[in-house]
Amino acid sequence: MKYNSVNEANAAVIERLKAARPHWVDVKTAHEVIPELREGKVLLHAGPPITWENMTGPMQGAVLGAAMLEGWASNEDEARALAQSGGIRFMPCHDVKAVGPMGGITSRSMPVIVMENKVHGNVSYCNLNEGIGKVMRFGAYDESVLERHRWMIKVLGPVLSAALKTMKDGVDVTSLMAQAITMGDEFHQRNIAASALLLRTMAVPIMESGCDPKDCQDVAGFLARTDQFFLNVMMAYGKCVMDAGAEVGEGSIVTVMTRNGRDFGIRIAGTGNQWFTAPVNTPVGLFFTGYTQEDANPDIGDSAITETYGVGGASMVAAPGVTRFVGAGGFADALRVSDEMQEIYLDSNPMLLIPGWDFQGAPLGLDVRRVVETGITPLINTGIAHRLPGIGQVGAGTVRAPLACFVEGFEALAKELGLNA
């Protein structure tokens, strides 16, 4: 339908964001639910469209790993030659209802979370968290990384799928998040509480799944030691909610924020799937021993869907413990950030109340107009990948979205409305 004003359209978008109730209902092999992965050599990636030549080190490293995992190449040199020759087709995760952390590289055989919005009926997908240590999402691709992915394909995905099938409606993620945000999570850099609550929710279903007892034990142990496991669940959730809002087809609310290591891209409810891009900034923060700011890769990953939804950096005040981890200061700094972010969001989330913010709800409804008017750009909490392939994560920090892509989007929306920006 056509709305009488941008404000009226935004109200409709926010109504859908508040009403959405995504449930984690299954884990499927990616090609089972994403048709684009069924034919040929296709890989999904984080961020707006990009070619192999323009990918930064971590994404290229993940491409090499995925090519070897799928059997398209038997070693690094063959995988690199395949990518350089144009033998792999690349697509943004966001173009197929999916998201992926850091490089976001998702191949046909990888298990993916299936998130179903019980109110509006839309679905979304995200690959599973690989755990700690060397991981493909940060660009590592040695044999230990590939072996872990083989275990995820053979054991982790099937056990989680079987466990979810024993639950009537899967995992009510909204309910779990409402608890976790009161326990110190902001759902981007800090997911300790949510991951623990998820393990509590899944423990009995895992044991009742009918899977091999050793596999069940291994999966439960993996969930127990993976503090960031919930991040990928949150990303699928955020994508599911924001896609429901985007279905309104009008308004100035930002429905996607994402990065590919070269460009930062956004989408807006009123301009559909059109990308608005600008060069990404490089995160600053704290680094692991032996690494410095010079090692940092430019901003990368679909995980900014968390800030698009209003958590992560926007809700820094919910997780003051994370501020030291990302080098952002202390509680006063977290409060200052969330107060600032509140200026560019239109509403607050009644399901995600933050005790340390006098029980205000997390920000909701990022408005491209407010970003352009105030010059305040979203702050994003993020991991920091090494700029070279094969090394992996070297720290954690924060980064600002570039203003230019919001200006471009604002001007396009104004043109769509027949206005002079």
Quick overview of this protein structure:
The chain is built from 14 helices and 16 strands. By secondary structure, it is α+β, with helices and mostly antiparallel strands.
Topology of this protein?
Blueprint: H1 6-19, E1 22-29, H2 30-33, E2 42-45, H3 57-69, H4 76-84, E3 89-92, E4 98-99, E5 111-117, E6 123-127, H5 143-165, E7 171-172, H6 173-180, H7 192-207, H8 213-225, H9 229-246, E8 254-260, E9 263-268, E10 276-279, E11 284-287, E12 300-301, H10 305-309, H11 320-325, H12 331-341, E13 345-354, E14 360-366, H13 368-374, E15 379-385, E16 393-400, H14 403-416
Parallel strand pairs: 2-3, 4-6
Antiparallel strand pairs: 1-5, 1-7, 5-6, 8-9, 8-12, 9-10, 11-16, 13-14, 15-16
Helix pairs in contact: 1-9, 3-4, 3-5, 5-7, 5-8, 6-7, 7-8, 13-14
Your description of this structure?
The protein starts with 5 loop residues before the first helix and ends in a 5-residue tail after the last helix. With 421 residues, the protein is α+β, with helices and mostly antiparallel strands. The chain has helices spanning 6-19, 30-33, 57-69, 76-84, 143-165, 173-180, 192-207, 213-225, 229-246, 305-309, 320-325, 331-341, 368-374, 403-416, and strands at 22-29, 42-45, 89-92, 98-99, 111-117, 123-127, 171-172, 254-260, 263-268, 276-279, 284-287, 300-301, 345-354, 360-366, 379-385, 393-400. 38% of the residues lie in helices and 21% in strands. A five-stranded mixed β-sheet has the order 4-6-5-1-7. Strands 10-9-8-12 form a four-stranded antiparallel β-sheet, sandwiched between helices. It is globular, with a radius of gyration of 20 Å.
